[in-house]
Specification:
about 250 residues, alpha/beta, Rossmann fold, nine-stranded mixed sheet, three-stranded mixed sheet, about 25% strand
Amino acid sequence: MLLASPAAQSSGQVIAAAGQRQWIDCQGTGSPTVVISSGLDADHRMWSKVLAPMRAITRTCIYDRPGLGSSPKRVGSLTTDAGQQAQELRALLAAAAETGPYVLVAHSYAGLISRSFAAQDESDLAGMLLLDAVFPGIHRNFAPSYRGNWHEGGTTIDMSASERATHGGPDLGALPLIVLTAGSPHGKTSNDRRWNAEQRTAAKLSRNSLHWYAVESGHVIQQDDPARVISAVKKLVAAARSRDPLN
C-alpha cells in the first residue's frame, strides 16, 4: 500500500508494511542493493554527503524509521526494539519490491538493527558495513549515559530485547564485513579504549572482515569522512560481485 508523503517531496514514498508507515527512497542500478540505516534519532539527511556516490556504485535504498525524518509516527505500541525494527525493514523492502541481495550499511544504534536482520535471515545478505556501531549490551556495561532503554521519534527502544535479537552476535560466517571505527585505534580515554575493543569484537563476527579506523572523524563518519565510507561500500559491493575475499 503506497501513501503520499509531502515531507519526502519529489523523491521517495511512504509505504505501509508490518503495521507501520515508513518513508523509503531507492535509486540507482546494479546488484547488490545497499540498504542504509541511520543512527539513534537520526534520519536520511545525515547521509547527504555519501548518498549520491553510493547510488553511482549500485542500487541504494535509504529509509526513515517511524517518527523520524519523512516517516509518520509509530502506531500501536510505542515500545519497540532492534529485532522488531529489523522485521519492519525487511517488510518495507519487500513492499517496495526490493529483492536483494543486500549490503547493509548501519551507523551507531542501527548496528543492532543490522545484526538482528542478519540473525533473522542471512540468506539475502551480500555484505555489511558497521559505522562506529553500538554493540549488544551497551545499555548494561558502558558509560552511565548509555544505561537503560533508549528513545527516538516518540518511541522507547527496549535495549534488553534489542540485545537478545542479535542472538549473541550473530555469527556471519564468511559474509563480507567492514567495521569502520571513528577516531584513533589507541583511544584517549578508558571509554574510548572500551569502545575500540568492542569494535574489534564486532570485526570477528565474520571470518571475512576488515577493521578500518577513520582517525580524523567524529562519531558521524558519513559526514566527517565520507570518502572512507564510500571506499568501504565500493569494496563490499566488489566483493559481493566477485565472490572474492576482502583484502
